[in-house]
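Reminder: ligand-aware prediction takes two inputs, not one.
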Amino acid sequence: MPAITNHMPTAELQALDAAHHMHPFSTQADLAKRGVRIITSSKGCFLKDSEGEEILDAMAGLWCVNVGYGREELVEAAARQMRELPYYNTFFMTSHIPAIALAAKLAELAPGDLNHVFFAGSGSEANDTNIRLVRTYWAEKGQPERKKIIARWNGYHGSSMGSGSLGGMVGIHSQGGLPIPDIHHIGQPHWWAEGGEMMPDEFGLMRARELEEMILELGPENVGAFIAEPVQGAGGVIVAPDSYWPEIQRIVDKYGILLIADEVICGFGRTGNWFGSQTLNIRPHIMTIAKGLSSGYQPIGGSIVCDEVAAVIGATEFNHGYTYSGHPVAAAVALENLRILEEEKIVDRVREETGPYLKEKFESLTEHPMVGEAKIVGMMGSIALTPHKESRAKFAAEAGTVGYMVRERCFANNLIMRHVYDRMIISPPLVISKSEIDLLIERAWKSLDEGMANVKDAGLWASA
Ligand SMILES: *Cc1c(COP(=O)(O)O)cnc(C)c1O
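Here is what comes back for the chain with pyridoxal-5'-phosphate:
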């Protein structure tokens, strides 16, 4: 077999990819026909593909490359750690400096008494850990029946058996026998799509109160926790109405259940604070972290746990862990990533400077005839595509058809902007500059124009 390098023609790479590489969340047969785009290198907010095109990555990879591509410090941190200690476990009465330093740093950054970290290799693994943490916590407290966990439809918490069950994605539930028992879902606070005639705050309260209704239906003595993303990411960057989170916090407090904030996207500056829980003023007992923790340079995730839960779990043997929990290279890179975020004041810049600039520009997209609303918190935003703004109408075509057509134009215009059904979403690197934001908006506008023309040509400009 010949060496596979960047210099191989794109078509050959595509053929090998189609023959042997099974892609996540993809229809393999379609992909093989279409041919994948092959990304070869990166710098700052830009990717380069095998045809030499320069692409503005308004998704920061998969919501994770917070400090941007090409950071030599992270390369150095990995190389240094690999030379010194490439691997050692933390299972059997041993520890190592990167895991110790990263746990201590996370305890310092996390709000309140979230002072203890259980490491995992990803967000999915960390949420699986959370299920076992919550159920073990209540069992140790003498309330083993409190094993039910409430989550939300259209939430995303990963795609393993446990985390995929916590998530509320019907496409995931429909394959492989999910959800696992004792996971229950309530509605999402997605006013644009589901709010009907209600005012946003009225709808937000209604959706929050579904948590109380579910707790009462299941019996408060049987409920262990509620899990949610502060801002839903993969579900389409859904920002809850202002009334929602205070009511959720009231209900969680009233029934004494644990609150798990899934900060996998919201954490590490994405919302303009270190954690989305701070932006939304909520007090979780456990936070799930991954993605921006290492800016995606190494696979690492974890659970940050409050004093009380850690004390109860700590009094027994917790029969859980991953070979790569606290992996020294991943931990060293994460630690260096946090140093960059802190020393370059990247989170402050998102909150005070580039975030507000992006918000203003992004919201101006609502002047486009196909854009109904724009929602943005810090550096995660979404726009709703609609054939009729006033009635918030959906397109008559199958949900996602129009979104896909606009995304296809984005791709052609060298802008990575994803679609979730007929919502377009962005989550750029936190280091994006004002001129790069201008370029993002320019390419988005052009793609919307072209997408809309294609929608009309295809006879799809019609309300459901
Ligand atoms: C991506 C994501 C996960 C899963 O993380 P993986 O590292 O892909 O397993 C969990 N929760 C949220 C909110 C995510 O966005």
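The first helix runs from residue 10 to 20. The chain has a mean pLDDT of 97. We will return to this case in the review session.
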